[in-house]
Amino acid sequence: MTDNLRFGCTGCGKCCIGHHVPLTLDEARRWAADAGQVIVLIEAFVTDGPGMPPEQREHVLRRSHPVQCGEAEARVSVTFAAFNPGRCRNLDDNDLCSIYEQRPLVCRIYPVEINPHIPLRPENKDCPPEAWQQGPELIHGTQLVDAGLEALVQASRQADRDDIAAKVAVCQALGMTTSALKGNGFTAYLPDMGVFAAALEQVPSDDSAPWTLHVEDEALVASLQGYGLGTTSEPPLYYAFIGF
Q: Least CB-packed of 55, 70, 127, 215 within 10 Å?
């Protein structure tokens, strides 16, 4: 969090344009059932090793799941998100949400950050300046003022923890088992939504698929292989590698 902040939505619709909205497992099911496209974003790290931000240890461990990678264990974090490269499919001609009462949890929480280690900074948001000059107080000192909003933030963090094993199982069933190293990038998949929806409805139980880390920096490859981790730098065919 940051210093005292006010916030009042202006209804500009900018937060609904060009943003992939993270979804809980149940929200991903509803999004898929409504013919929406989901993008899958994956990053991995080693417990107390490469990719682990020490200051975020508890947070990242709780929202990750252990997988076999080469001869070692990695932990992966998986995000299912509504794929919105342009306007959200539920944004109407008046820049209003057409599913407002059923909108995803992250939309309800905006503009507050979900990650407790990321401060809310107005300059990092798409909202116009006047949005931060009106409305009720949002943050006082380091505290989120609205108890209802704080409850939604906690619910989102808990869903990340509750859903991660099932998300990893779905990824493994669909062959989405190449990750990037946290802090170095992430991998992004656009699964066939029919197959994806079917896997969401009956989450597979097999948890044994091997994983690989997509890494292009030679020094980092050598470091990861020293941990016994499996890596690849081959051009991806079925995913995109988004490096930092």
A: 55
DSSP conformation class of 139? E
Handedness of CA 54, 24, 185, 64 (dihedral sign): positive
Q: 7-37, pLDDT tens digit by residue?
A: 999 999 999 999 999 999 999 999 999 999 9
What is the rounded distance in angstroms from the CA atom of residue 16 to the CA atom of residue 84? 8
CA–CA distance from 210 to each of 58, 76, 170 (Å)?
25, 12, 14
Give the closest residue to 158 by CA, choosing from 114, 107, 103.
Answer: 114
Strand blocks (E) in the chain: 5-6, 21-23, 38-45, 65-69, 72-82, 137-140, 143-144, 178-181, 185-189, 212-214, 231-232, 240-243
- Domain, as residue range, for 49: 5-243
Identity of the residue numbered 221: V
What is the rounded distance in angstroms from the CA atom of residue 72 to the CA atom of residue 84? 35
Structural domain total, the chain? 1
Stated as kind and residue range, the H or E segment containing 62 is helix 57-62
Closest CA to 232 of 218, 243, 244: 218
